[in-house]
Amino acid sequence: MSEVKKIATRVSYGNALTELAEEFPDLVVLDADLAAATQTGIFKKAYPDRHIDCGIAECNMVGIAAGLAATGKIPFVSSFAMFAAGRAFEQVRNSVGYPKLNVKIGATHAGISVGEDGASHQCNEDIALMRTIPGMVVLNPSDDVEAKAAVRAALEHDGPVYCRFGRLAAPVINDRPDYKFELGKGVVLREGKDVAIVATGLEVSFALEAAEKLAADGIDAKVINIHTIKPLDEDLIVAAAKETGKVVTVEEHSVIGGLGSAVCDVLCAKAPTPVLKIGMQDMFGESGPAVALLEKYKLDGNGIYEQVKDWLK
Amino acid sequence: MNKLELQKTANEVRKGIVTAVHSAKAGHPGGSLSAADIFTYLYFEEMNIDPNDPKKPDRDRFVLSKGHTAPGLYSTLAQRGYFPVEDLKGLRHLGCYLQGHPDMKHIPGVDMSSGSLGQGISAAVGMALSAKLSGDSYRVYTLLGDGEIQEGQVWEASMFAGARKLDNLVVIVDNNGLQIDGKIEDVCSPYPIDKKFEAFNFHVINVDAHDFDALAAAFNEAKATKGQPTAIIAHSTKGKGVSYMENNAGWHGKAPNDEEYATAMADLEKVGEALCQK
Known about the structure:
Order of helices and strands of chain A: EHEHHEHEHHEHEHEEEEHEEHEHEHH
Strand order of the largest sheet of chain B: 1-2-3-7-6
Order of helices and strands of chain B: HHHEHHEHEEEHHEHEH
CATH topology of chain B: Rossmann fold
Shape of chain B: globular
Number of strands of chain B: 7
Structural class of chain B: alpha/beta
Distance between the termini of chain A: 27 Å
Number of helices of chain A: 13
CATH class of chain B: Alpha Beta
CATH architecture of the largest domain in chain A: 3-Layer(aba) Sandwich
CATH class of the largest domain in chain A: Alpha Beta
Structural class of chain A: alpha/beta
Shape of chain A: globular
Helix content of chain A: 40-55%
Number of helices of chain B: 10
CATH topology of the largest domain in chain A: Rossmann fold
Strand content of chain B: 5-15%
Number of strands of chain A: 14
CATH superfamily of the largest domain in chain A: Thiamin diphosphate (ThDP)-binding fold, Pyr/PP domains
Oligomer: heterodimer
Number of domains of chain B: 1
């Protein structure tokens, strides 16, 4: 594989906010003393008057965002996924979700690729939490191009949106002229008839890598990128299941309640199909370099390849 | 409105509260009644609002952070003309828009959904911040329970409001001294409430929650206060106006039965008649 450009989607997030600031004059960005880490610092530098640091108080920050949205602003609330979706879950549910306010949540440092900070900061539960909230849109972009498109889509959508971003630099895989982000639409990145690998976020590039390895073994894998976990592209998933008869889901998230569960929910009802859920099993992560953690928990290209190969035996 | 008219209106608001909760066979009369005069003052005297245009952009905002006292807010909104007083009997009934806790999506005049304690004040702070960011002149009012201020989020919001010098924000604490499990000082004392808000850089005013002259003075003082938000600590009587409910924590979240309802309405009728003699 030739050397590809790598950019962490949190950086894409900070850049996208800044690039879209003029087009969306009502956009304001909130952070809770993590602007340097979430990369909203980029926005802060360009638009200091539209960046509000709420201090280390995420629950209050979400409430403030609700008040801003109720009075016509479009707030983007930023923190680590652990705190935005975890700590402030009930505020997101009751102060944002229930009144369906136009609040966007930019959650960075999701998944185990947070790395050295360890399990306390590795949020593997945010997708599960956010998708239970009625009306919440859940986005998990796979690279720089998609992350920027997701921020735009979030701003264009009227209602609450949760955007998941990562700390680790991710390969840019969507840098092509015909790339188009459609909220709620999955993207087929590779055709295949033996198995459908449905991946999201950071795992999309690893799924492509795994598909290459499987191909070398004569296994023809279809790869689907699901950037919108809710609303899920049910038609695409059902069609892929019918076409291949076997579905693998891959996410840097717990296998409980995330993409895997969402896919199973659809397939149970519409096209019962065996599904292998690859993700964090029912366990906490640990400290270590992100790349090493992804390898240990079999969430890199090789890990996915091995698990799929084993499952298909 | 003059003082007598406000008193008469507040008495009608109280009748609506008791009627709504009786009809719902559930709800929170105690804290609704303790705040009835505050609700009345805000909607009939203080706030720039228009019942015929509930969403007008330059209106003052009100967030009922102690959302369980929705009957008090709804009864006031009905009296003010946002919706028919008759609708109060639909409170908490299946299919009725008057939800158990404030719902901004379906109830005219409700500026923010609330009910989970500690969250409303943050939304109010966000609204006040929003006005500052846009250079708008509307003011934001939020009513908290004295038990509610045990929630840590209240102090996160207060720290932010004080730090940001949000002088367009008025936080009112309905200090009736009782919460579900008993006296607030016995459960987990939030006292001294005034000194806490002072420490968070608020201008603090202690006031008798049932004295309209005092309320007028307090809200005028809040309006004249620049460079810091105001906290009005409103010393009230839980269950105010209904003899057997007054100062009784048991009436925090319980509906009167038919007999008790009749007694409550008789109490309030008596107050109303006395006011008419004035």
